Amino acid sequence: MKVLYIDTSSSYLYTAIAEDDNLLAEIKEEYGQSLSEVALPRIVSMFLKSGLQAKEIDKIIVVNGPGSFTGIRIGLTIAKVYAWTLNIPITTIYSLEAMALSSKKDTVHVPVINARRGYVFGAIYDKDNKVLLKPQHIKIEELKKELNVYRTYEIITNDDLKEFEKKSSYNPDMLKIINHFKDKKEINPHAVNPEYLKLTEAEENQL
């Protein structure tokens, strides 16, 4: 099975092409504000490096949140265009799932993304990546209370969150992510939508 993976939920472009247990090409690069301009050209260049054409892909796995509102839309748009125009099955996953799966430590995994104003997007998974606390928008203090019941755990983040003393950087293991989710049920490309896990700032202001 040939799989395309796309994650633009942060300032990084994380994308890969894998065939069965072989990683044919991958990109792990930070682009910041220029992500919207470079994401598609870089994915195209990755196809050239892999020796495959987009129409040869059997499945697309795309991260649909949480994270950067703009970033999430970039990845989803690219993935949906490929899926719809080339009739490729597509499925979505949470960024927090990918972060937990990529951990090399045999302990409780706690992926967190800074949501500002004292909040994070966070979740808790056991060492086998089963959900202990589902992905959600949560106050940092509330998440820390949830963690009090665990003797050891690993905070996974690329954000500067001073509320957590010891943190592990997120370095996606894209082959592991792809193999874990390659059999996840496909959905209609038109039903692929962002999962922000919170209202946008404009929506909050309106309320």
Could you characterize the architecture of this molecule?
The protein has 207 residues and is α/β, with parallel strands linked by helices. It has two domains: 2-95 and 172-206, Nucleotidyltransferase, domain 5 (2-Layer Sandwich); 103-168, Nucleotidyltransferase, domain 5 (2-Layer Sandwich). It is 30% helix and 30% strand. It contains six helices and ten strands; from the N terminus they run βββαβαβαβββαββαα. The chain has a five-stranded mixed sheet, with helices on both faces. The protein is globular. It starts with a strand and ends with a helix. The relative contact order is 0.18.
| Strand segment tally | 10
Please estimate the helix content: 25-40%
Give the radius of gyration.
17 Å
Shape: globular
The quaternary organization reads as single chain
Which residue ranges are poorly predicted, with pLDDT under 50 across at least 5 consecutive positions?
none
- In the CATH scheme, the class of the largest domain would be Alpha Beta
Largest sheet: 5 strands, mixed
The overall number of domains is: 2
Mean pLDDT: 95
How many helices does DSSP assign?
A: 6
CATH topology of the largest domain: Nucleotidyltransferase, domain 5
CATH second-level architecture of the largest domain: 2-Layer Sandwich
